[in-house]
Amino acid sequence: MATILIVEDEIPINELIKRSLQLVGHRCISVFDGKAAITEIERQTYDLILLDVMLPELDGFQVLETIRNIPTIFLTARSSLSDRVKGLTMGADDYLTKPFEMLELLARVDAVLRRTLKDSHCYQLDNIRIDLDSRQIFDNGQLVECTPQEFELLNVLIKNRNIALSREKLLQLAWGYAYEGDTRTVDVHIQKLRKKLRLEERIKTVYKLGYRLEV
Amino acid sequence: MKLKTYLMTLMLFLLFFNGSIFIFSVVTLKSSMDSLRERSLAEHYFIVSALSKDLFAVENRGTPLQPAMQTLFQSYSKYYAKQNVLLEISKDGQPLYSTVPEEERLTGKSDVPAAGTRTVTMQKSKSKEYIKISGQLPAPYQAYALAYLYDLSEAAASWNRMTTTLFAIGMILSALLAASLLLLLTRIFKPLKQFSMASRSIAKGEYGNRLNVAGHDELAEMAESFNEMAGEIQNQMKQLAAAVEQRQRFIDNLAHELRTPLTSIYGYAEYIQKAPVTDEDKLTATDYIMSESRRLQNIAFRLLELASLRHSEIKREEVVIAELFRSTEATIRLKASMNEVELKWSSKIDKLAGDRDLLESLLLNLTDNAVKACGPGGRVELSAYWEDGKKVISVQDNGKGMTEEQLSHITEAFYRADPSRSRKDGGAGLGLALCEQIAFCHGAELAFSSHPGSGTAVKVTFTTST
Question: What does the pLDDT look like over B56-73, one tens digit per residue?
Answer without folding.
Answer: 888 888 888 888 888 888
